[in-house]
Specification:
Blueprint: E1 14-17, E2 23-30, E3 36-38, H1 45-58, E4 64-71, H2 81-96, H3 103-118, H4 124-131, E5 134-138, E6 143-147, E7 154-158, H5 165-178, H6 180-203, H7 206-223, H8 228-239, E8 244-248, E9 255-259, H9 265-274, E10 278-280
Helix pairs in contact: 1-2, 1-3, 2-3, 2-4, 3-4, 5-6, 6-7, 8-9
Length: about 300
């Protein structure tokens, strides 16, 4: 998430970019009378199960499925593994059963899975996994606009603390009842930053984009979702010369991001590490979901 977290849950826009770490899902029809799921990323099992359930219900299918997942990254770091495995499962099933789903249909079905399991969520991570690239997004997929942009010069730092996104969303919802006017003001200000950032990304004005990111972090601190560790990592990045820095996602842990020049990248990385963070080496604006190996008509894989 580049800008707009939490505000997006309340109908405001956000900007999100897809990382190049991949989640791979292999599917085939299972001769046994049960679904077989081999998912080393334990957290994602329920997302796979729900994806199968809703897909088969939608298309009135009664076959049992064998699924294996493999990821380039741990679900612990908060880079959207749940949404990635959901989207990949839906895409793989659509290929297995020759269902010609549009991008929007893959999004809608995957988003249903997220809501069925978590009960809350805006769907921005689903959109990133489906479409790839860097996206201007509004809740529930009302707007999914690709921004024409090259690789953004980001550094990603992991705080070492796994955050629970649904819990944080509910925390903000509880606060909203008591601080409605204040939080509405924060969301309005965040929305302004998102709109400015959209233009800055298109124009590749990274100094401006960095400044907007830092301001966004300030609003998230006021919202109460940042932590001392994230704040220290953000400040360390800024002190080392980053254009801007902020937490990325729900807060409470997981990752922060810094926008940097090539000349300052190493210094910023070292500063984040000195503040206790772990550098996660990923690229952004990556390709979305795709079929890497087509199934065989003969063995139905």
């Amino acid at each position: 998430m580049l800008l707009g977290e939490h505000a997006v849950v309340y109908g405001h826009p956000c900007i999100v970019t897809a990382m190049d770490t991949r989640m791979r899902v292999s599917v085939s029809v299972n001769g046994d009378k049960t679904n077989t799921i081999n998912a080393p990323q334990v957290k994602e099992c329920r997302f796979v199960q729900e994806s199968i359930k809703l897909f088969c219900k939608k298309f009135n299918l009664h076959q049992h499925i064998k699924i294996h997942t493999a990821g380039d990254f741990s679900h612990q770091v908060g880079l959207g593994s749940s949404s990635a495995v959901t989207v990949a499962t839906v895409k793989a099933l659509s290929d297995l059963f020759d269902k010609k789903l549009t991008t929007k249909e893959i999004f809608d079905l995957s988003y249903q899975v997220t809501i069925a399991i978590q009960g809350v969520g805006s769907g921005f991570d689903i959109a990133a996994a489906v479409c790839g690239g860097t996206i201007y997004y509004i809740y529930g997929g009302k707007t999914i606009e690709q921004l024409q942009t090259d690789l953004l010069p980001l550094v990603v730092g992991y705080s070492g603390v796994k955050a629970d996104t649904p819990t944080l969303i509910r925390q903000v919802a509880a606060d909203y009842k008591n601080r409605k006017k204040e939080i509405d003001g924060l969301f309005t200000n965040i929305t302004k930053l998102v709109e400015y950032a959209k233009r800055a990304i298109i124009e590749k004005d990274y100094r401006q984009l960095g400044s907007l990111m830092s301001q966004n972090h300030g609003y998230l601190k006021q919202l109460g979702v940042s932590t001392d560790k994230l704040n220290a990592m953000v400040q360390a990045a800024l002190n080392a010369g980053a254009y801007g820095a902020k937490l990325s996602g729900a807060g409470g842990g997981d990752c922060m991001i810094a926008l940097v020049s090539d000349e300052k990248r190493k210094a910023v990385e070292k500063a984040i590490e000195k503040a206790g963070g772990e550098i996660i080496r990923v690229k952004n604006s990556a390709e979305g979901v795709k079929i890497e190996n087509k199934r065989s008509k003969k063995n139905n894989k």
